[in-house]
Write a sequence for this structure.
């Protein structure tokens, strides 16, 4: 049995990015631990979800614990930093936010958890945090340093396959016909991804990706974990409103860049980060 630690920035990131990998690991008898850098204080709550007087972070902590349970996580831990907000916002300057955290100090907080659970594998984000969010970039930096502190080599960078997404969107007319009756959030989500595909800070080129984990067998579990984050992912959101076939296409594979690894052109992806 191995211990998989998935390190993420905010509650709900885990379900979207590595939820399938976590569920597969738990189903196979491995120990799964979720660590979150922040409590997601600056998310935008879905209207009508919060109770009177309830703070968003309070709801998101509960949601993270429930999503962790669904995905089979044995523990859900928070490093104790505040959400930094999107890049360039004044909240990036908050001295208590994750973006402003001393990397060595934050890494030692994570390292203490890695030591306590005797971690075998750690997941973080790629160097630009998937899409440039400061807290995601900090997960990359802090995660690498924490792994160095505990002597952990098996560090996998969760990313999005930019080339696969481009291929999925090539036949735009057919894709849009399939989604014609879906919620407005689906169209908005597709448009946003289409616009971002030309950015070097959105996902990674396929040539850099070494692992493709097929999570189709636990896709229903992954979706349930997303639903648990009701303050952020409403029923009309891009994630939940798309048809099942489109959801499977978008979220049925989780992509990683392996530690010090490379993949020759035409070589198949590795299919598991747990050996």
């Amino acid at each position: 049995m191995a211990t998989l630690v998935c390190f993420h920035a905010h509650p709900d990131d885990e379900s979207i990015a590595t939820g399938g990998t976590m569920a597969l690991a738990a189903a196979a008898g491995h120990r799964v631990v979720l660590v979150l850098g922040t409590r997601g204080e600056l998310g935008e709550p879905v209207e009508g979800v919060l109770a009177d007087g309830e703070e968003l972070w309070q709801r998101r902590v509960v949601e993270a614990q429930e999503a962790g349970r669904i995905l089979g996580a044995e523990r859900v831990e928070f490093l104790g930093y505040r959400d930094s907000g999107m890049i360039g916002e004044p909240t990036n300057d908050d001295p208590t936010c994750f973006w402003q955290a001393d990397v060595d100090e934050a890494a030692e907080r994570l390292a203490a958890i890695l030591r306590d659970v005797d971690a075998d594998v750690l997941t973080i984000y790629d160097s630009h945090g998937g899409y440039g969010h400061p807290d995601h970039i900090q997960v990359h930096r802090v995660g690498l340093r924490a792994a160095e502190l505990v002597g952990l080599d098996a560090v996998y960078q969760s990313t999005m396959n930019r080339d696969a997404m481009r291929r999925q969107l090539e036949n735009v007319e057919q894709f849009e016909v399939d989604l014609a009756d879906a919620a407005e959030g689906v169209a908005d989500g597709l448009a946003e991804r289409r616009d971002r595909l030309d950015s070097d800070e959105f996902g990674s080129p396929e040539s850099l990706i070494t692992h493709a984990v097929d999570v189709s067998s636990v896709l229903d579990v992954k979706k349930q974990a997303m639903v648990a984050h009701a303050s952020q992912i409403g029923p009309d959101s891009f994630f939940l409103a798309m048809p099942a076939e489109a959801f499977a296409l978008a979220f049925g594979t989780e992509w990683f860049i392996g530690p010090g690894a490379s993949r020759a052109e035409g070589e198949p992806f590795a299919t598991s980060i747990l050996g």
Remarks:
- The first helix runs from residue 13 to 17.
